Amino acid sequence: MKKRIWVVSELYYPEETSTGYFITGIAEGLARCHDVNVLCSQPTYSQRGVRAPAKEQRNGVSIKRCFGSTLDKNIIVFRLINLMTISFSLFLNALRCINRNDHVLMVTNPPLLPFFIALACRLRSAKCLLIIHDVYPEVMVVTGMIKADSYSAKFVNYLIRKLYLGVECIIVLGRDMRQLVCEKLAHSESRVVIIPNWGDINVVKPIPREKNNQLLTIKLDGQFVIQYSGNIGRTHGLEDLLTTALRLKAEPIHFLIIGSGAKRNLLEQAIQKEGLNNISLLPRVPRDKLNDSLNACDVAVISFVADMAGISVPSRMYNIMAAGKPIIAVAEENSELALVIKEEQIGWVVPPGDINRFNAAIQEARADSVQLAAKGIRARRAVEMKYSYECVIAAYHELFKNLGKLGA
After folding, report:
1. Please, what are the domains in the chain?
2. pLDDT at residue 131 greater than cutoff 80
3. What is the pLDDT of residue 121?
C-alpha cells in the first residue's frame, strides 16, 4: 500500500557529503512506490553558500528547504547556533506538515534533531523511524568530548535510550551497530533492522592503473600506492598511518591521503615536521571525480581509532569495493568493516595501534600482485551482489512493506 513518507534531514541534495548523498538516494528510491516529501535545510557543508530553491520537485520527491543559519561551522559557537536554528526550524515545519499516520524517516545528525522530530511525530500521531549513522554518547567518549563514567555520558545515554524506545523502527548500518543499539533497548531488538549504505557501481568502476588521470598527474610511477580517502575526522586513526609512513620512508611506497576534516591540520604539521615526502595530501574531490580518485592506488586504507566498533560504519567502504580495490582496515575484529573484509576475502584487518601488523599487511599486499588482483575482483563482485543501490533500496521497500509486523 502506498504510504506518505516524510524524510527529515539537515542535509539533502545538492549536498554531496555522505549523509546528504545517502538520504537523497533513499528518498528518491522510496518515491518509486510511495508519496515522499523531504524537510531539510539549505546547504551547510560541501555546498555551503549555494542557495537552493525553497521548494522543489526532484526525481519524484517534494522538497521543502527550511530556514536555518549557515554560519562558519568551524567556529564552535557558530556551529551550535546553526544546530539550534536548523533543528528548531525543521521541528516547526514538521508540526505544520506532518499528519496522523504519516511515516517519518529521520537521521541522528545534528544530535538535537531526532529529539525535536520524535516530539513532532508524537504530537501529530505519526510513525517515526530513525536511521542511526553514529551512536551516542559512545562517539563523544571516543573523541574525548566527555568521559565514559561522567554524569554527562550517563545523561546522554538516558536520553538516547528514551529516543530509541519511542520510535517505531531503528535502522542501523551494520551488525556491530545493531548489537550496541540492542544493548540499550533490552527487549525491543526486533525493531532494529540492518540496512547498509551502498556503493555507486554505475559511476565507480575499476580502471587500469596506467590509465588513471590522478596518478599520472602526481607522477607516482614505480611506487606502490596506498590511499586513504574520505573524512579526516577525530574518529579516524590517521596517527597509525603517519607512524607507518615514517617507518617506510625509504621504501618505494607512497601514501595518498585525500579529504578534509578535523585532523587535516595535524597531518599537514606532521608531514612537514618529519619530512614525509612519501605522503601526498590532496583536498576532497567532488563526486564527479570520485572514480578517478578511488582508482588512484594499489590498495585502500580505512583507519579508525580504538573502540569504534558499533559506533559508526564507514560508507566509503562500498565505493572502494566498487572500484575493485583491496582494503586494509585498521579496526576492531568485530566491526562491520572487519566482518565484511573477512567474509568477502578482500583485504586485511589490523588492530588500531598495531604498527607491526599494519606494516606486515602492506608488505604482503605489495609482494603478491596476483593475490592483490584477486581480492579486488572479489570486492567488486561483493558490492554488485550485496551492496548496490538497488539492493539497499529493495531492503527499504521491504521494511516499509512489513513495518507493522516489527516487534509482533
Report:
1. 4-198+389-405 (3.40.50.2000), 209-386 (3.40.50.2000)
2. yes
3. 97
